[in-house]
Structures are given as C-alpha cells and as structure tokens.
Amino acid sequence: MARVVRGGIDLGGTKIETVVVDSRSQVLGSARRPTPTKGGPADVATAMVAALKDACQTAGFASDQLRGVGVGAPGIIDPQTGAVSTALNLPNWRDSYPLGERLAEAFGTEVRVGNDVQVATDGEFELGAGRPYRSVLGVFWGTGVGGGIVLDGKPWIGRGGGGEIGHTVVRMNGRRCPCGRRGCMEGYSGRAALEARARKLVEEGEKTDLFKLMQKHDRPRLTSSIWARALDQGDKLATALLDEAYEALGNGIASAVNLLDVEAVIIGGGLGIRFGQEGADRIASEMSPHLYHDLQPPDVLVAALGDVGGAVGAALLVRKTARR
Amino acid sequence: MARVVRGGIDLGGTKIETVVVDSRSQVLGSARRPTPTKGGPADVATAMVAALKDACQTAGFASDQLRGVGVGAPGIIDPQTGAVSTALNLPNWRDSYPLGERLAEAFGTEVRVGNDVQVATDGEFELGAGRPYRSVLGVFWGTGVGGGIVLDGKPWIGRGGGGEIGHTVVRMNGRRCPCGRRGCMEGYSGRAALEARARKLVEEGEKTDLFKLMQKHDRPRLTSSIWARALDQGDKLATALLDEAYEALGNGIASAVNLLDVEAVIIGGGLGIRFGQEGADRIASEMSPHLYHDLQPPDVLVAALGDVGGAVGAALLVRKTARR
User: Fold this and answer.
1) Which residue segment(s) compose the domain that B289 sits in?
2) Could you count the other beta carbons within 10 Å of the beta carbon of residue B180?
3) Is the ipTM of this complex over 0.90?
4) A87 inside domain
5) How many Å apart are CA A48 and CA A54, to the nearest integer?
6) I need a surface site. Which of A46, A106, A169, B226 has the fewest CB within 10 A?
7) Angstrom distance (rounded) from CA B41 to CA B77
8) What average pLDDT score do residues A28-55 get?
9) Mean pLDDT of B251-271
10) Residue A236 lies in a domain
11) What is the CATH number for B236?
12) What is the pTM of this model?
C-alpha cells in the first residue's frame, strides 16, 4: 500500500517554502523557491507548483501521489474556494485569483488555502512549541509582524480579519507604519520598517555597516541574517534600531497578553527564528514591566518548526483528506 | 406558587449596586449603598447584605425568598468558593475573604461570585447592547478602565486574568498609570487618572472650574457628572483632558479590535454611561484611523443596561439555581 502523503506550501513575499509530510506530519522532503517579483498571480502559482514538485522529488514521491495540498497565503482568502485577493506583497495580486483551483488542477487532489499566519500558528500549536498549551498567541516577526491566536484549542480569527497584532498602537501619533497608519508596533519592529528607518537615518548622516554588509553578501535587502551580522559586529545603528524593535514588541505583546491572558507566546518569522530563544527571552524581558499579572507571565518561546513551520502548518489544512 | 427571584450585587470601589430580578432577568427592584471606605472585608460584606435587603424591600419580597445571589467583585476571585482577595480598591482587602460563604449564610441560598467586569459584559451580551452579536468586547470606562470579552458566545478570561484592556500600552514610556506602569490606556482615560492629572496641572498653574464644581455639588471627587458639567461649561482643561482620554481609548480599543476582530464594542462604566452614545461615537471615530480592516469596523455602542448592568449581569451567575 502506498504511503499517504500531503503537501504544504507557505507562500511568502520573499520565498515559497514547500514540504511533503506523512500522516503524522513528519517532513519527508522540503524545497524552497524565490517568490516571483514580476508578472502576476499565474506566475506565482506556477512557481508554487514547481516548488512543491521539488519537495516531492526530495521526498521520493511522484507529485500525483499527494493526497491533499494545504496552502498558507497572505491577502484576503476565501476558505471555501481557495481564491485569494489583495495579496499586496505579491506581484499585481490585487484582484481575486483562483489559487486553490489552479493548484488542484496541477496536482489532481484537494487543495485548501488558509491565512499564512494562522496556519503557522496552528502548526506550532499542534506540532511545535505550542504543544504543551491550550491557548497561545503566535507572533511572526519578519517583513511585517503578524499574529495568530489559539484559544482553548481552537483558532480565533474573528470575522476573518483577526490576529493583526502588528497594528497594535504602541505610540499614539508615533512613527508612520508601512501600512500607512501611525504608531503601530510593526512600524518599529518589522523588517521592512527597520530597513526604511535605517535608510532614512543614513540619508540624515548616521553611520552604519548594514548596507555594506548587504552588498558584500549580495542581498537585495536587509535580511534577517544581515541584521544578525551587524549586531555581531557591534554596529551601533543596527543595535539601537533592534533595541527599539524589542521594546515595541514587548509593549505590544504585553498589551495582547493583558487582554487575552494566554498561556504562551510563540515567536516565529524570519527575524524571530534568526534571533532564536535569546530573542524570545529579550521580548519576554521587555514585556515584563507591562504585564498586569506580572507574577503569572506567559511562557515566551521561539517557534520550534523553524523555516518550514508555515508549510507544515498549511499541510494540516488537508489532514482529513489524507486520512480518508 | 411564589415567584422565583434572584439577587445580583455589583461591588464597586465607590458604590454597591443591587437588584432583584425575575426568571427572565427583569429588574423588580434595585438599591444602592456607598462602599465602606474604612474597616475591612467584613464591613463591606455587611453593607452588601444591607443593600440587597433594600432591593428586596423595594421589590416587595422577603430576603429569604431569594433563590440564588450572584456577585460581581473586583480583585482575584475563586469562582468555586466565592473567596475574594487582592481587591485593592476596597478597604484592607488584600488577604482572601470568604465573601461567597458570608453572603450565603446571610441569605440562606447559593451565592456565586464572578469578576465584576466580566459579569457586566455577560449582562450586556445576553440582555443588553450585545444581544445581536456573537462576539463582543466590553469596555468599562470608570474609575479605571476594565474589559470583558465574549467570543463565539462564550466569555474568555484566559487563565483568569484576561480582559485588562485598560493596561494596553498606548504610549511607550508614556504617562504613569495608577497601576504604577507606564503608558497604559487607563493612565490617559480612567477617572482616577484624569483627576490626578487635573490636580497636577492646577498645581502647575493651569486654570479649571473642575474643583469648584466638585465643591459646589458637594462631591468628594471629580465624578463623571462633574466632568460632564465642566464640558458643558466649555472648561478648557476638562475639554483637553477628555480629548486626550478619547484619543487613548480610540487607539487602545482599535488595537484590541485588530487582534480580535469582534463584531461589536460595548462602552459601559461611569464615564461611558454618562457620555452615552455620543461618547461611544467619539470613541468609534478615534478608533477608525487605527483599524487595520477599516472598511469593516465593529459597531460601537453604549451599554444598554445602565448603572444596574453589573448587578443584572451578576444575577446571571445563579440563573441555574433559580431555574431548579
């Protein structure tokens, strides 16, 4: 009897992560491709198909053996049809595109599409750092800052738009966020906001090695590894900006914990994974002075599934298909 | 056959509100007594018994006819035993006191004790402004600012300490809150914080009629009605402080909505009730620029049960007793 395997795809603004997992969600193979920055949704879908086929090959399965493919995507998602719209970090993806249908045709199996941050949180809750708990807040600290909520074992997304912890106001009338609003936590801590801030300060005459490191390592932007290198070198501007980022994360996450009193906060995302448990500990330490019940703080843990966590979480969306 | 009636008590830092309700939660009688400011928990319990007896008299029932008494209390509550500790707004109430047992002896019926803000939210959810919705955030804007959460029809209190929306940080390193932390929403909007701020500004030489109005109307503090009068007179300092309070409430509540995406926000509490739907509309307007999904804002409504809402909500705690 053939083994039952499922596919998982995490569609990010920078890269497409894919996995093939078995019925116990063990990763049998994985692959990564860059997200197209030109073209449109059809080109992105083509790259997703190719990336998941790569993962199948790595795992030693033909792609038509997949029983179910789960996708975590940004933007506005119709969970019934798998259509995705308003994915503003992806090329020309404003209108609705039938992503689920397109992938179902390519793989000949059921495809389900969920919110990228929520499936990553579900993955950590069921399989990763969240396993000991019944209620967790996932904070994905990368290009932006996203959030996922699990309360009493169940995801909470409100009317479909919940979890936007990045847009917690940590400073009234504060800095402009990439979203256009003022004072959001993401405006002080997201990778894109940090890069924009660094560029502005350099234009104003401040010194930093951040952009030299970027060129030396041939990166198109200030990636999490560039930030980590700059910190290791003791770069003063990078250190000051990250200090501010940790402070904003501590204030904003403490506010969410004061409201929800979850058992654990799980820190993922590109920067979150890069800075690891040490970074999670710094966030916990910045949260502490703002926790109303400071004698009963939540555990603050780095995500355990690493870079493939979003894809593994996405594959959970089609668990039932695979179990049939 | 005797009618089945229940008692409800809302134990606040300033006053004790009590109601007698029928099986459909209609208020048959109500009474109010000031909360003792001296003595200790036993004196507060004695005043609570007297206040609920007053309500029974108003309703035309003997107090031994009550079938169940529900209490909303501040502090840390053991919902199994009805013991209350750390009620810091009440006189010498740090250690655990068996409030539930004491009231059960006095009335010869089952007594259940819940969190004051959560029972008020439950009351609005089931009987008041929250009835059309499945998920609501209650914000009680009074001496402090408390919050209650109902998600998919069920209260959410986390590990028992959730709902502390007043301690959402709206300004990193901002003003000192009465709780001792920095930048909390309550520090800019709670009645106690507003009064402390007004006193400080007067000491620094600013002019206001707030304290003259307080003396004229023989109040021991700047009550919500004093604030309302000062606004009506166009008092500049009062207007500026309330403007700032609305801004802080808008920022902090928008942050909570970005996280939870509830259908409705219900504004209660002394100041919330005083400023009514007009005040709720101002809060909605201050929230708007900070809502991530600004095309799908929640409804923002003033609490419908008024001053007795907390007591009516408390009586819901013993609904099952009464239905036996």
Assistant:
1) 132-304
2) 9
3) yes
4) yes
5) 10
6) A46
7) 14
8) 97
9) 97
10) yes
11) 3.30.420.40
12) 0.93
